[in-house]
Specification:
Layout (H helix, E strand, L loop, with lengths): L3 E7 L14 E7 L10 H5 L6 H4 L2 H4 L1 H8 L6 E5 L7 H8 L4 E6 L10 H9 L1 H4 L3 E4 L15 E7 L2 H6 L3 H11 E14 L13 E2 H10 L3 E6 L29 H7 L4 E7 L2
Parallel strand pairs: 3-4, 3-6, 4-5, 6-7, 7-8
Antiparallel strand pairs: 1-2, 7-10, 9-10
Amino acid sequence: MKQLILITLMTLSSCATHQGAPLKSATEEVIAPEFYITPKTIEKAVSSPYRTPEFKERDMYRHPEDTLTFFGVKPTMKVLEITPGTGWYTEILAPFLNERGQYIMATHPAGSAAPQSGHIAEWSKKYPDIAKNMKSTIFDLSNPNLELGEEGSIDMVLTFRNVHNWMAKDNEDVAFKAFFKVLRKGGILGVVEHRAPNDRTDPKASTGYVRESDMIKMAKKAGFKYLGKSEVNSNPKDTKDYEKGVWTLPPTFALKKTDREKYQAIGESDRMTLKFSRP
């Protein structure tokens, strides 16, 4: 039976926090969930009741179990996810890492053009036993000396569909340099990004697509070793020639109702899934 309890809740918000500091706490009444089950495998984390049902519907495009298995996520790791948005991967990684590892998110500064979604805060209120072990740090690319935590303190850095945003403002070098510094030696960088055709030159990634060769160059420039790729997130139906770029496809549907069924049939974008390490 659910019981009403007083609990110190670690909450997330879009407000600025000290880098690496625990999330802000507040005491409030919540309904204790009937389960606090730590998923022991990635498979169980993906199928766990901690996930929002609408998020699960996108597994057919994002293949979280295969993606995280390829990256080699372990339950004992300290994993840093870069700008997790609404928390799609947060709901998988935070419970999985809760018992023996730790999930850390790098969020945009307060007042930025892309503040952190409130969905993560609401999700954290629902599962305080998970939220209390989560941490956050500030991902501010306007700082050329950006630090995401103590040097060598992280086992894995993950970024999903973010690099095109950094390229648009010429600060991808700042990002990859910070990733390299915060990772321990042998630590892993996992990248998923919309994949551009090899013959397309688009240094600002204006269409949202990035060439695989350019991605590898970015990481190597920062000092990373390229370990390989997976085609788990590839989509041969994606022609990559749309009026509104990658945002034409679901879930954005930039053209609204125009040819919506056509783009729904294509599905989400063709994506590269690349793995690197800090030597």
